[in-house]
Amino acid sequence: MRRHEDGQRPKSYHHGDLRNALIQAGLELLSEGGAATLDLRKVARRAGVSHSAPYRHFTDKQALIAAINEEEYYRLSERIQAARREVPDDGVIAQLHAIAHAYVHFAVENPWLMREMFSGLTVRREAFADLHAASKLAFKQYEEVIRRGQEQGIIVEGFSGALAGVFWSLLHGVAMLIIEDQMHPYADGPEGVDLMVRTSMQTLYNGIGRKIL
Amino acid sequence: MRRHEDGQRPKSYHHGDLRNALIQAGLELLSEGGAATLDLRKVARRAGVSHSAPYRHFTDKQALIAAINEEEYYRLSERIQAARREVPDDGVIAQLHAIAHAYVHFAVENPWLMREMFSGLTVRREAFADLHAASKLAFKQYEEVIRRGQEQGIIVEGFSGALAGVFWSLLHGVAMLIIEDQMHPYADGPEGVDLMVRTSMQTLYNGIGRKIL
DNA sequence: ACCTGAACACCGTTCAAGT
DNA sequence: ACCTGAACACCGTTCAAGT
After folding, report:
1. CA atom of A15 to C1′ atom of C19, Å
2. Residue A89 has what pLDDT?
3. pTM above threshold 0.90
């Protein structure tokens, strides 16, 4: 994520890049075990500054984690956008599937980050407006795709926002329950995960109700 | 939850009830703000013992929270069972709806407990076999109802476990995203929550795919 | 068997002082 | 403007000692 295109790593962070260095170091620790393994003193040590230096850039530990979460919401949103672009615009159902795949795989690859982003245990979201805005980026994409599907007559009429909410909820549930190992043995291993995603999307499209022929 | 049907509250907890007293005091703190607001010394103080007494009953803070989570899984499972019983056995769709309602409302009423139970941030579930078993109780109920629906020809054929997983994922996603305030403005207030639950169940049954008449 | 109190290590945070 | 180092309060955990 850091951009040092000149090739030479900075000799010292004490020159204005500290904020990003702290985010980077914090991200590594968060990825290993969540907020419990991220202690500010260790973050400072990794960035090569004293333990009180971070307070110049973040009011407290929570604020650092909020900043990291914010970056990760951007990253998730970009992943989803990339997934959509791989599918032609008229393939709305395929796009929903691609989004689901991207979302769940982001979670599987970054379980600790995902937990921190959505647990609500560490960061009081109300206090961080940018964070809250970032967390909404992905939702807008779901709504766009749903709306396009409705225009094309592929998806049922109705409030696109609410349908997007249902779509997201299903995705989110699948992702979180998989990383908490609650879907065992139905979503074990990479193939199991993909099967679960496919079953979910299948069900979302057709419903579980048996149609009388 | 504690049972003191004799009417007289125990004069002191130092007589074998300490374990439950700690769980009870811990539950109160957990409900206020999760593991961050539960400190073991405060728990001990509330139970009227020294700060090292809890270690006689729980190996560490995590073990106490695991025990609380376990009790809450039972409580959630019981709530779901109660919801099912309010609906006649042939009303499979109505039962799924009742389960969804109960699940989401449990979450809305106990957001901090729900976060702790499912975040994976505080307790390493692998280390607590009973906890893991307790977390599976509700799932079995989903599967039962789905299977009955299949027998009655109301629900599509297929692996009932996977379908139950899809059902749970949808429920869980709705519940968690609502308590994290991510469904705003589609699930605000009690009516908003109920609307979201109804839309979810509607969609689960019929699917979002537009059926050609 | 169960609980107490002193003690230790560690962390978040603050603040006066340095460059 | 930005960083340092000492200092404080607080918490999880341990352990020798008490009843």
Report:
1. 14
2. 85
3. yes
Q: Would you list the domain boundaries of chain B?
A: 13-58, 60-206
Distance CA A170, CA A187 (A): 15
Q: Find the CB nearest A120 among B165, B179, B186.
A: B179
d(CA A208, CA B155): 6
| CA–C1' gap, A73 and D13, in angstroms | 37
Cβ-in-10-Å burial (0-12, 13-18, 19+) of B200 comes to buried
- What's the pLDDT tens digit per position in A141-197? 999 999 999 999 999 999 999 999 999 999 999 999 999 999 999 999 999 999 999
Residues of B in contact with A181 (CB under 8 A): 125
- Chain A residue with minimal CA distance to B203? A207
Range B140-146 contact pairs with CB under 8 angstroms and sequence separation of 24 or more: B141/B77, B141/B80, B141/B81, B141/B84, B141/B99, B142/B99, B142/B167, B142/B168, B145/B84, B145/B92, B145/B95, B145/B96, B145/B99, B146/A208, B146/B96
CATH of domain A60-206: 1.10.357.10
Nucleotide nearest to A63 (CA to C1'): C12
Give the helix ranges, DSSP H, for chain B. 18-33, 40-47, 61-85, 92-109, 111-119, 129-134, 137-151, 160-179, 189-206
Per-residue pLDDT, A13: 44
Q: How long is the CA B129 to C1' C1 vector, in angstroms?
A: 26
Q: Which fold has domain B13-58?
A: Arc Repressor Mutant, subunit A (1.10.10)
Task: Say if B154 is an interface residue toward chain A (CB within 8 Å).
Answer: yes
φ, ψ of residue B49 to 5 degrees: the values are -125, 170
pLDDT at B210: 86
Q: What is the mean pLDDT of residues A201-212?
A: 91
CB B193 within 8 A of CB B108: yes
Q: What is the mean pLDDT of residues A94-103?
A: 98
Closest chain A residue by Cα to residue B33: A121
**Distance between CA B103 and CA B139 in Å, rounded?**
12
In the 54-83 segment of chain A, residues within 7 Å (Cβ) of strand C are 55, 59-62
What does pLDDT average to in each consecutive run of 10 residues of chain B (213 residues)?
33 67 96 97 95 96 97 98 94 97 98 98 95 96 97 96 98 98 95 98 95 66
